[in-house]
Amino acid sequence: MYQEKIINPPSGYLTFALSIALLGASIFCFVSEIFLWGGVLLAIDVFLIFPGFLIINPNQSMVLTLFGKYLGTVKADGFFWVNPLTAKRRISLKANNLNGQQLKVNDKLGNPIEIAAVVVWKVNETAKAVFSVENYMQYVNIQSEAAVRHLANIFPYDHAEGEETSITLKDGAEKVSELLENELNERLSRAGIEVLEARISHLAYAPEIASAMLQRQQATAVIAARKLIVEGAVGMVEMALEKLSQKGIVELDEERKAAMVSNLLVVLCGDRHVQPVVNTGTLYN
């Protein structure tokens, strides 16, 4: 595997001045009807001087090869001159956004879900990006999709009933993003790619089970609310009986306590307004 080698070629301004001088000399020869020397000087300028000029913009690099051998990478921005026989390939060092397409996969529990991710990446080692893979941009797309699929398969979408999972795709966004970023860096290191950030951009149940899962979530919420209401109602009844007993307001036998508890629980736990009933008799008649 190729390792990146940074090179700093000489400035191109001196060579550019030489090129202008050769061009002027060739023109002078043609004007003086010295066509042989004019042709030689022009050929040297066109075929040996001009092809060697190199302009590198900020956040760009140029990978140089000579007859199939890797010479190095120029990362410094500026105007340079290199061997005119070298092959040049420009590689951008800017950050790129990959907005992954929505994938339909199964989570850890086998539920079909839709998931997509946004990946921010850049080329870190140009030699690996050029020589280790065929097309590093296509490589990033395919490996990112594979990493998202793998991530969706090892975590459930949400907590399953009766099971407490430490990490889920829905609630563990920060941890899931960290794991996705680490896996992508491991996969893309072969191509000299560094992942700066990776986050889940879309997460939902597949349409065929979305309605069923919505009903399940609603039922879970209702049960949790009812449980809280019952716990609160029991505490209030207990407190009421304790206060009545401490202050001696009324002496209640077991049957009256049971009736009072029943009435209070109906009032506190019911989801509708209760209608008061005035009892003018006793519980024993």
TrEMBL record:
UniProt main location, coarse: membrane
Gene Ontology process terms (BP): proteolysis
Taxonomic lineage from the root: Bacteria, Pseudomonadati, Bacteroidota, Sphingobacteriia, Sphingobacteriales
The organism of origin for this protein: Pedobacter terrae
Compartments in which it is found: Membrane
Protein name: Regulator of protease activity HflC, stomatin/prohibitin superfamily
The entry's keywords: Hydrolase, Membrane, Protease, Transmembrane, Transmembrane helix
Transmembrane segments: 12-28, 34-56
Residue span(s) of domain Band: 51-217
